[in-house]
Amino acid sequence: MKQYGRTINLKNDPEIIERYVEYHRTIWPEVERGLKSIGILRMLIWKLDRQLFMFMETSDEFDAARDWPRYEASHPRIKEWQALMASFQEPAPNAKPGEWWAEMEQVFDL
Questions:
Q1: 3-state secondary structure of 49
Q2: Residues paired with residue 52 on neighbouring β-strands, in sequence order
Q3: Contact between residue 45 and residue 24 where contact means Cβ atoms under 8 Å apart
Q4: Are the C-beta atoms of residues 90 and 11 closer than 8 Å to each other?
Q5: Predicted pLDDT of residue 32
Q6: Which of 47, 55, 72, 96 shows the smallest number of beta carbons within 10 Å?
Q7: Which residues, including other chains, have CB under 8 Å from residue 29's CB and lie 6 or more apart?
Q8: pLDDT in tens, 31-86
Q9: What CATH topology corresponds to 2-94?
Q10: How far is 92 from 20, CA to CA, in rounded Å?
Q11: Using CA atoms, how far apart are residues 88 and 106, in angstroms rounded to an integer?
Q12: Sorting pLDDT into bands at 50, 70 and 90, what band is 3?
């Protein structure tokens, strides 16, 4: 099993933040099925003000460079979801150029 920690910010607008949270209370079935189909076993997202932290556990076969594009191309509703979520988000200030969700380095494991 692989594990990932990533971060991104929501736009600084209370309405946008609430809409993002509301959408994630009941994600679209196509999105859930799509994530599972590429080997994502567990995904958790936490929020602090407008900063998000995502923790993912994936199968050993998961390859982000290969599987994210495959996920996004697998169903029109997934493309719609991704575009909608992106409209609520902006990269964290310390994200690398071209990076949307900034990859975090694990520094401790108990």
A1: coil
A2: 8, 47
A3: yes
A4: yes
A5: 96
A6: 96
A7: none
A8: 999 999 999 999 999 999 999 999 999 999 999 999 999 999 999 999 999 999 99
A9: Alpha-Beta Plaits (3.30.70)
A10: 16
A11: 26
A12: very high
